[in-house]
Amino acid sequence: MNFTNNIKQLASYTSLERQDFLQRLVDNGVVIIDLLTVYVTPDIDVEPGTIILPNSYLLGNTKVGKDCIIGPSSFISDTNIGDNCSIIFSVLEKAIVGNGVEIGPFAHLRKGAHLDDYVHMGNFGEIKNSYLASGTKMGHFSYIGDAVIGEGVNIGAGTITCNYDGTKKHSTKIGKNSFIGSDTMLVAPLDIGQNARTGAGSVVTKNIPDDTLVIGVPARQKTESSAKTGKE
After folding, report:
1. What average pLDDT does the chain have?
2. Residue 226 pLDDT > 60, yes or no?
3. Which of 32, 136, 202, 227 is at 20 to 30 A from 73, Cα to Cα?
4. Contact criterion met (CB below 8 Å) for 214 and 202
5. pLDDT band at 93, cuts 50/70/90?
6. Which domain CATH number covers 140?
7. pLDDT at 141 over 50
8. How far is Cα 185 from Cα 135, in angstroms, rounded to an integer?
9. What is the pLDDT of residues 183-197, one digit of tens each?
């Protein structure tokens, strides 16, 4: 079901029908703070213990696990959400969210976004057609598109995957436990190894091996000798 169909279904769903469905959710153990300001379509599925805060929309084929916090003011369409998640002031469309995931405020998951267990996605981030493995943190002000991110990666503020060259989309891969410094530009296609690091403000245009630090514009490997002399 696409976004337009979800809105059409919501428009045809009368206020009385919506209130009746919300009451059935409440009777099944879902906590809805204000029945008058939560908007749903009849195909959603919400597990007991979840709290839905005011001005939230759950549309289409959306499933929410137990003990989550949804909202306030979250818009969720055709998305699967696991248990114990928090989704605050955010938009999720055709996404998959694991268990224990924190999203928002003001985050956006677009089609094909998949956040595995215990991922943290903070303020003003956007993810499209990408997989973030367990424990990865994407704090704020970043865009990740067409990427596969390994476990335990830290994505610094302002990081962007430059995935579109004007004609085609290209992919980025980041190995587990890597550290992507603030304001890093990742010019795809790229393959970044495990335990790799980028300095703040780097523009990465070439693959990075495991256990390697790169810095600068364009990013170059930081060696032991350059660390001592201050020269690359």
Report:
1. 93
2. no
3. 136
4. yes
5. very high
6. 2.160.10.10
7. yes
8. 22
9. 999 999 999 999 999
> Is residue 197 in some structural domain?
yes
Would you give the DSSP letter of residue 170? -
**Would 176 be classed as within a structural domain?**
yes
Catalytic residue, candidates 114, 120, 140, 170: 140
Q: Which tokens hold the place of 66?
A: 């137990």
Contacts of 20 (CB under 8 A, 6+ apart): none
Amino acid at 2: N
Number of domains in the chain: 1
In a domain, 53, yes or no: no
Pairing of strands 179-180, 154-155: parallel
Phi/psi-derived region of residue 94, left when phi > 0, alpha when psi is between -120 and 50, beta in every other case: left
Amino acid at 208: I
What domain range includes position 141? 110-217
pTM score: 0.90
- The tens digit of pLDDT for each residue in 47-69 reads 999 999 999 999 999 999 999 99
Q: Does a structural domain hold residue 64?
A: no
Is 140 part of the annotated catalytic residue set? yes
Give 203: exposed, middle or buried? Use CB within 10 Å, 0-12, 13-18, 19+.
middle
